[in-house]
Amino acid sequence: MNTKKMMLWLITAVFLTLVFAGAATMQVSAVATFTLTNDDCKDVKNDGIEFRAPVSITDPTTEKFRSNIIVEITDPNGLVGSTGYHIGTDVVKEVALYAASDSTEYQCQQLTITPANNDFSCNSFPVGGTISAIHVTFVPNITGTVPNEVVVYGEYTIKISESAVTPADVLLTGVAKIDAASTACAQNQGTGTFSPVAPATAFIYNANDDCDDNDIPDPTYSEEQEILFNESSTNPFRIVSFPLGETITPERFKIVASPETNSYDYDIVLKFLANDNTPYYLEYSYIQNTDSSTIATLNKCADMTVPTALGTCTTGINDLWDITKLPIKLVGGAITINNTIPALLPTQTNFTIDFYYRNVDPTLGYENSMFHFQRNMSVQFSNYCTGTGNENHRVASSAYDPCKSSKQLFNISFIDTTGPTPGVGIQLDPCNFGGGVGGWCADTIDIPVLPGESYPENTTNYYFGTLKCMDATCEHQSGTGSYVSSVVVNDGYYTGTTWGANEVSRSTLSRIPMRLFQTATNIFEMTAINFVADGPGTYLISAFATDITTNTTLENTKQLKLYITIPQKDSDLSCYTPGNDGRFEAAWDGCNEDWDSEQVEFKAVNESYSFISNYSNKKMTFTLSAAESFMPTALEMNELYCEWQVLAEGYSADGGSCGAQQVVLPPYTRAIVTGGKFTMNGKPSILDDKPYLISYYREETGNDMTLIMQMSIKECKQEKIPDTGYSLRSPQPLAGASKSDIIFTGNSLQIPAIGLGIETPIPIVHVSYIGGSFDNGWDLTMVGGYVGELEGGAYIPYAGNSVLTGHYYSQGVFVNLTGLHLEDEIYIYATDGMKYVYKVNNSFYTKPHDVYQLFQPNGEKSLTLVTCDSYNLITDEYDNRYVVMATLDHAEPYQMP
């Protein structure tokens, strides 16, 4: 039979029913594991350490938290806070409760400071609310004297009890582990990117040893090149504090970098500044084909080679880490690349630098370290020249953004900023640069404008061919989808004239018609180009104009070579991936048992879908995030129903996935969630009609898509309960069946503790289903002034849980039921000649719909009694139910008088 239906029918009766078996009136404390919050860097000795524990605490325990509580801390050696290790001092600094309904924090008020007793009141917490988490901040046991104080490490016990009653109920117990990491603090750990040091706009290694283009290596060229970088100035990695009593042990610093390469050696130097501005340095030196994790991190000035641009490392000053004045922050550094063969260098290397302070146990790595961070930087290896007179070698002032469409526009300026003619671009001879136009090619004299003449009308086709360098020296190139879209020139009359391409062949060769002329005072020069690139790297652009009278091949007409380097951004933080929230509804089947596992389908409300849009050229992943979600009852996502949209021509949703744990979006696509399925392992909690929030989250940018889920309980079909309750608004005699219709079981009940059945035990009658069907409910007219044994429970004296019910208030047999206490005895005189003695082991108040356990076993033989309580004169109903549970203690023969 369906016991859920039986319970719903029984508990909504207006009259009172009575049952025996359930949960004890004595409060059983919750057990929690507290974890470090790391929300802030605090003074351990004075401010304490903050720990958090997820819980699920409801009334009546919530109300006890709202009253007065005492928080007791016991160290690993058994010493109790204010009376043991910090005598006379408030060990507990803060207590806060978090509401399950909306995750709001409610600070508890400390009641007394002197004497120290760690009393708090959390009366700001909502009445009747559910506590989802508890934060406790306390000072650990600190031994020794300044400056050699140390924290006692180990598991600390947190006990929260009522403080206004004796004996006090323990409301919660838990443990909080304190180790070195708990008492140390660093800011801005995690992943980030380094930035170039001005005036550089990108990390460039110059692989061109012949910038004079004379086929003779430049004598000043060096394969060893330093590339400087800066840490974020607003959010740098900063070590704020070390474990109390400890100093920095520099040998525990570890740097591990990638890639592991066979193309070159490289050294990485990190520069730190202490609170007194003393610089400190660490160095990592990678040798080709070496396992990077085996390389030692150097910390002594005598062992390091610090680039001049980073300052001077003086032994005995800049390497005395043990006396560093905290806080100390990372400010930047340098990567030095050497021992290279330029022709064998790649065009780009993405460096990843992992830094951490190793655990005392050397086998524990990065994730188990006290402090750590990861930084990234992309270095372009380019056929690049920085010297005077090499204006045809340029680096774009902006970087290629992998988040955007594959073809991106860059403006490349050729204005000389360092050479002998600042402000001048690449000077071109129009007489040789395509033959000029008519007589306008002269470059030494002014050509007067004749009457009626003005600017030359004829143009010459000028061509720009683009190839991408396949190696750092650009000895090898390949075709590409990149091209010059326009050119900016100064000519004989005008400055800043832009000539656009009127044809692009094979996506690489641009034909740009221009008027090529100059005067003696106005030199023809190219000041900039607008270049469309389909990716980062170095491009070779050949510029030429055909002269069909003298030239037969394009090679013979090349006039200019340009080497353009397009750097790449080091992260995808700029990728635009907005998420949109949607509204859904789901219903739990109320006919199931509360502890049943059920798969629930959810659907969008009025087509209010959730969706994620990927407006980038990269594949993006959104992951189901428990931290960003709000689920009063845990659930497991099984499936998402998704539809796909393509946001740009030439793209597709191929490779995309819409899974329960993560959503993967190909470039320029949108995933639309229309519904799905999840599994719950128990009846969902419905908190003030608050929706569940299920969030899919992109950690790099904080974008998210939230499914706003309105949960409900699908009502189980049930018949109307007969109105046999006793109304106090208009008292009427209790209705009952004629005695001839009542079925007496032959058993009777006596409860000495409340004076029930003392002179004559109360007969127990059988209460059956109306019409023999549970769907019709019980025939409560049989109860009258007797005790009713409900059909569906065990029949006395057989094994199982027997459910007894009776009327309440002055006319009811269970009017004094709330007077029972633990261990009070209940007697059943059975037809088998035995007196069964039960002892109360549990009793509690509950709401009408919260007694799923009424028909559950409570030992081999048990009783459950339930009755109404808290009459509401306005609604003419009883708001609460009172439940008593008892188990069989022993049986003995008896003879009725």
TrEMBL record:
Task: Name a Pfam family for this protein.
Answer: Sortase
SUPFAM superfamilies in the cross-refs: Sortase
What start and end residues bound the annotated signal peptide?
A: 1-23
Question: GO MF annotations for this entry?
Answer: hydrolase activity
> Keywords in UniProt for this one?
Hydrolase, Signal
**Source taxon at top rank:** Bacteria
Q: Which InterPro entries match?
A: Sortase (IPR005754), Sortase_dom-sf (IPR023365)
Is-annotated flag, keyword Lipid metabolism?
A: no
> Can you name this protein?
Sortase family
